Amino acid sequence: MEKEKKSYSFNFVIPQGEFGPTGPQGALGPTGPVFAEDAIYLKFYNATKTGLLTIFSDIVLPIDSSCYHINSDEIITQEPGNYEYTFCGKLHENSSVYLQAIDENDNSIGLFTLNSSIKVMPFSKTKVFQVNSKLRLHILFFTNDANGNIDAISLLIKKLPF
């Protein structure tokens, strides 16, 4: 048995009366998410030549945070504590990137080192690190040929509540 294919359309209007008065206000809802500690999100300019990466934009939370100081190519954490660093982007062939921290005594601490020998290497790395004094952070980019570059680089730093 074969079904017949037929189209139907309904053309009618649902009657609507006038609007009544506004009702009482509902109960207050829950508070939205809150940062327990300070955070900063940084984006960096793309690079094709060896050198320090330059900061393109930043968002600091809360806005009045005194935890971070930003220069064109470095971030200074002003307060001791435990911090979470999340570093991500794309590294292209024959290139390296190094997230370096320098303490008040000029001791260098390598937080991340990445090397790429493939055409494009997307990456995301997270590390929790204890800071005992002011730290200067910057990102060094190295390339060994004309095809080397780095792009879509961002760094999120959160001060942890413990």
Can you walk me through this structure?
0% of the residues lie in helices and 50% in strands. It has 162 residues and is mostly beta strands. The strands form 2 sheets. Strands 2, 4, 5, 7, 8 and 10 form a 6-stranded antiparallel sheet that branches. A 5-stranded antiparallel sheet has the order 3-1-11-6-9, with no helix packed on it. The model has no long low-confidence stretch (mean pLDDT 88).
Straight-line N-to-C gap? 73 Å
Largest sheet: 6 strands, antiparallel
Approximate strand percentage? over 45%
User: Tell me, what's the shape?
Assistant: flat
Quick recap of the structure?
It is built from no helices and eleven strands. By secondary structure, it is mainly beta.
Task: Give the tags.
mainly beta, 5-stranded antiparallel beta sheet, 11 strands, 0% helix, flat
Topology:
Layout: E1 39-44, E2 51-52, E3 55-61, E4 68-70, E5 75-77, E6 81-92, E7 95-102, E8 108-116, E9 120-131, E10 135-143, E11 150-159
Antiparallel strand pairs: 1-3, 1-11, 2-10, 4-5, 5-10, 6-9, 6-11, 7-8, 7-10
